Amino acid sequence: GTLVLGDVGLQLSTARWVRFLTEQRIGAFECAGRYVDDLVEFVAAAGVRLVDLRLLVVTTEVWRTGSARRAVEVLGERVRLLAGYGITETTIDSTFADLTAVDEVARATPIGGPLPGVSVRVLERSLRPAPAGGLGEVFIGGVGVARGYVGRPELTAQRFVADPFAGDGSRLYRSGDRGRWRSDGQLEFAGRVDEQVKVRGYRIEPGEVRAALIADPDVADAVVVSDGDRLMAYLVPAGAAVPSQGALTARLRAGLPEYMIPARFVQLAALPLTANGKVDTAALPALGSDRPEVTAGFTAPSSPTEEALAGIWGEVLAVDPIGVDDNFFELGGHSLLA
Fold first, then answer.
1. How confident is the model at residue 107 (pLDDT cuts 50, 70, 90)?
2. Residue 11: closest CA among 40, 41, 34
3. Which label site among 46, 54, 93, 194 has the fewest CB atoms less than 10 Å from its CB?
4. Percent of the chain with pLDDT over 70
5. Beta partners for 128?
6. Are the CB atoms for 75 and 43 separated by under 8 Å?
């Protein structure tokens, strides 16, 4: 095939992107999941047919199963849809998953299994394999592993380690990503090792909470952060119907333990992004004392006792106003605050 190079301006305009794909008769291309979502919805609304397209590779750690099903529905069965995962130090793509028949009950799309010539291992801190279904750090070996960092021998020694399973002098790259092997043999992304947070004594992977959130059909995208005492979720709704905090909390409890449920949910029109398409957590709006519900639902106190209790809760939780139907724990409360 012929390699066709675009320019950076293409990602700023979906219409230009579609015109480029059509005019250049692109048969296969690879890009980030958030851009694929825009492309699919533009194609659906404009009635455009990408008649030459046969292969679409989505490079993303976590992509909603609903987005994958939508892409298959709009682009047609003739387009093979793959998810790719990898990093610069292992020559970009290391794994792939075929999403053409994505599992509808999965929380998020998998990142698949290794490409030919690549080995992928999920290891504990001792460099022993994590148990089936257990979390561990993702290590990548094989022909794509780079030699190291130029002029950085200390960092090279830290990130490129001897492969204890090969016995041939080859090395594994310590990715810094956490993952688990699913029962179907597919690898699932579970956040970054360096993004792990500790909340009230529990070690939590924000990426795992995010994966559960974006699996909700009413949530288009989300990011989960910690203020030290609580988890906060910023989310972009998938449609006009925005779920309430109570509804989101109830759905998350079906698959997550109580300590991993965010205390605050904040609705945004879009997540702030850096120049390379990553979520810019520094640009997320600061949380004040506003009510954390993503939808309205408030009954004011109507008696002296209710007003006194609401005042105490508001002072303890730093939330205002407090309604008579509110739940102490869903507003961010926990046993120590109680």
1. low
2. 34
3. 194
4. 91
5. none
6. yes
**Tens-place pLDDT, residues 190-216:** 888 877 787 776 778 888 888 888 888
**DSSP string for residues in 86-99:** EEGGGTEEEEEEE-
Q: Is the pLDDT of residue 319 over 60?
A: yes
CA–CA separation, 233 vs 210, rounded Å?
Answer: 8
Q: From CA 144, how far away is CA 182, in angstroms rounded?
A: 24
Helix (H, G, I), strand (E, B) or coil at 10: helix
User: Hunting for tokens 């148990």 — which residue is that?
Assistant: 131
Burial class of residue 308 (count of CB atoms within 10 Å of its CB; 0-12, 13-18, 19+): exposed
Q: How far apart are CA 69 and CA 66, in angstroms?
A: 5
Dump pLDDT digits (tens) for 124-182: 988 999 998 898 999 999 999 999 999 999 999 999 999 999 888 899 999 999 899 98
Cα separation values, 97 from 111, 181, 213, Å: 6, 13, 21
From the list 320, 266, 321, the residue with the least C-alpha distance to 293 is 266
Q: Which residues contact 81 (CB under 8 A, 6 or more apart)?
A: 56, 58, 68, 71, 72, 75, 98, 99, 100
pLDDT of residue 242: 67
Which residues 6+ apart lie within 8 Å of 76 measured at CB? none
- Whether cis (ω within 30° of 0) applies to the bond prior to 321 is yes
Pairing of strands 80-87, 55-59: parallel
Instruction: Give residue 292's Cα distance to chain centre.
Output: 22
Query: Residue with structure tokens 């999920």?
Result: 122
Q: How confident is the model at residue 293 (pLDDT cuts 50, 70, 90)?
A: very low
In angstroms, the CA 81 to CA 100 distance is 5
CA 134 to mean position of chain CA atoms: 18
